[in-house]
Amino acid sequence: MCKIHILGNWKMNHTQKELASFCEEINSKWSELSDKAAYGIAPQTLHLSTLKTKAPKGLLVGAQNCSDQESGAYTGETSAVALKDLSIDFTLTGHSERRQLYKESDEFINRKTKLALENGLTTVLCVGETLDERESGSTAGVVCHQIEAGLKDIEPNKKLLIAYEPVWAIGTGKTATPDMAQDVHAIIRQKLYDLGHDAASTPILYGGSVKPDNIEGLLECPDIDGALVGGASLKATDFLALCRAGGMRNA
Ligand code: 13P
Questions:
Q1: Is the pLDDT of residue 251 over 70?
Q2: CB 96 within 8 A of CB 167
Q3: Which of 6, 7, 9 to mutate to test the pocket of ligand 1 (most atoms within 8 A of CB)?
Q4: Domains of the chain in sequence order
């Protein structure tokens, strides 16, 4: 069984003050969490160092995105080398908001994913179908294509995680049911196996309107190894509740 990961994606939210009060609250409860699961937060890039300093030791701190290039004249980008240099623990790649709003292609996401892994960063490759794609019955095809293209020329790597985030469930309050999510997670695991990756030991996280009141059902599914959480990770009480649920699943 894979280690359960509960990761928060703060997106473009939280000021320094909000970050400080979040950290104060989680610091006071941190010792109550099971050490069998992994917990992490990806804040805005400019807050990475502050979160690293203020968060409990052991909370993984990650980037929401990184460049497809190591260094050079790429204004506004963040290098995987610099993230590693700051001891950042992980990065997301291929989040659907990057794919949709910033037109990131599979090839571009593949270069980022490869570079991040080559630089020793734990990398969470995000995949997921739109509502139209689900309704036209192409979920499996879309997700498998994103996995295959995103992992092109990438060797099996223990630092790789996948997040299945159906676009129609992100920020909408519409969660995939545990059965719907499990079906796609099983397809993803099979695809990883077919591509020669360590399928059984690659954590596959679910994301899309995960909340303290629906996480338990999702984590009961055999192929769901954690959650990538947006809105509900912003409040310390909710994030702690999600972490508790993750810790219980591993107990
Ligand atoms: P919500 O949990 O707000 O739906 O966001 C999910 C997500 O996009 C995490 O990366």
A1: no
A2: yes
A3: 9
A4: 5-249 (3.20.20.70)
